[in-house]
């Protein structure tokens, strides 16, 4: 049974509680990570959205308990990393069940993005949870970007799935996954109608006060290309600048950093729900299709050696390693130079 024909969605754009503001603030002094408080605030936002007539609410990348921004500059391995692991959500835990029970109580669909603790590792995870508390989709970022991979373990390719739901044919990706063919091609080939992205935070167009990876000019390019190739509406919740693309790569709703986060913590928009449903799980004539995949394989230059390299093999980082003296940051985002005391 499909939800209402007109689908009102909500994109959260405010930070979790206690997170440093403004966005370019890199000072983590005195900041305390608290997953319970984060869940409490998320449920308040869900109630606000429900009262506004929303069916689906979406959260930025790792909103639970928050994206570890400027972790390298603040030497998180000494200051916040152990607390971050402790405050990561474990499916089935008391905190997780509090979130699920809250979603059921509000009666709203929620796309949550969270740091997931599972056994001896943490992952960059997403879950689509129905208004009845059912986990309709759960996935982990296939390959965390840059120094994210120093903290978070890799996901697996079997979680690159698009599923039919009462909301429509839905897929999910996070942040840099929207740029890379090993992730976005497989998802686009499955012909989603509604795509839930998740970006951690984004500065406005032309704001060069931080890394280009946090600038709207870059964020929108990845999402727009994916919208065009997949044929899906793309919801991109993000702290700061957030937006929605239609399948023709047009921004149909957006809110930038000139709008106060506290006064307007949510971007609202209504979609035509009739456009979000369909049974087509592939299109042999699409740019993302089996035939195109074969063409890519056939066209791969014979001059390039068939080497495995070090990027693709799955990496895992144990909690013991993350909290040990051996833990090291491998890199830092361009445009954010190392402080003198961390220079390597």
TrEMBL record:
EC code(s) of this entry: 3.5.5.1
Similarity comment: Belongs to the carbon-nitrogen hydrolase superfamily. Nitrilase family.
GO MF entries: nitrilase activity
Domain of life of the native organism: Eukaryota
Protein's UniProt keywords contain Hydrolase: yes
InterPro entries reported for this sequence: C-N_Hydrolase, C-N_Hydrolase_sf, Nitrilases_CHs
Catalytic reaction list: a nitrile + 2 H2O = a carboxylate + NH4(+)
Keyword annotations: Hydrolase
Organism of derivation: Aspergillus phoenicis ATCC 13157
Protein name (database record): nitrilase
Domain CN hydrolase: 7-273
Pfam families: CN_hydrolase
UniProt key word Thylakoid: no
Enzyme class: hydrolase
């Amino acid at each position: 049974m499909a939800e209402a024909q007109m689908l009102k969605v909500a994109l959260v754009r405010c930070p979790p509680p206690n997170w440093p503001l403004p966005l370019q603030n890199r000072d983590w002094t005195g900041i305390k990570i608290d997953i319970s408080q984060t869940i409490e605030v998320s449920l308040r936002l869900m109630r606000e959205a429900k009262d506004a007539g929303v069916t689906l609410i979406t959260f930025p990348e790792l909103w639970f308990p928050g994206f570890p921004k400027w972790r390298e500059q603040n030497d998180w391995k000494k200051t916040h990393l152990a607390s971050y692991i402790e405050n990561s959500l474990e499916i089935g835990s008391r905190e997780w069940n509090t979130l699920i029970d809250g979603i059921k109580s509000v009666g709203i669909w929620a796309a949550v993005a969270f740091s997931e603790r599972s056994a001896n590792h943490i992952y960059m995870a997403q879950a689509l949870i129905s208004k009845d508390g059912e986990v309709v989709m759960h996935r982990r970022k296939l390959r965390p970007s840059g120094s994210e991979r120093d903290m978070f373990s890799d996901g697996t390719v079997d979680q690159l799935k698009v599923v039919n739901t009462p909301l429509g044919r839905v897929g999910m990706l996070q942040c840099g996954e929207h740029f890379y063919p090993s992730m976005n091609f497989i998802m686009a080939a499955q012909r989603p109608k509604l795509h839930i992205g998740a970006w951690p935070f984004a500065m406005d167009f032309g704001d060069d006060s931080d890394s280009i990876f946090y600038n709207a000019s870059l964020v929108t390019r990845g999402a727009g290309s994916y919208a065009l190739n997949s044929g899906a509406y793309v919801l991109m919740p993000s702290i700061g600048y957030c937006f929605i693309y239609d399948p023709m790569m047009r921004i149909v709703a957006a809110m930038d950093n000139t709008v106060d986060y506290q006064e307007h913590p949510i971007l609202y928009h209504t979609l035509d729900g009739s456009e979000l449903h369909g049974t087509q799980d592939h299109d042999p004539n699409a740019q993302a299709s089996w035939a195109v995949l074969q063409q890519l394989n056939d066209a791969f230059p014979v001059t390039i050696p068939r080497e495995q390299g070090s990027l693709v093999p799955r990496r895992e980082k144990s909690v013991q390693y993350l909290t040990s003296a051996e833990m090291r940051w491998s890199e830092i985002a361009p445009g954010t130079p190392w402080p003198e005391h961390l220079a390597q």
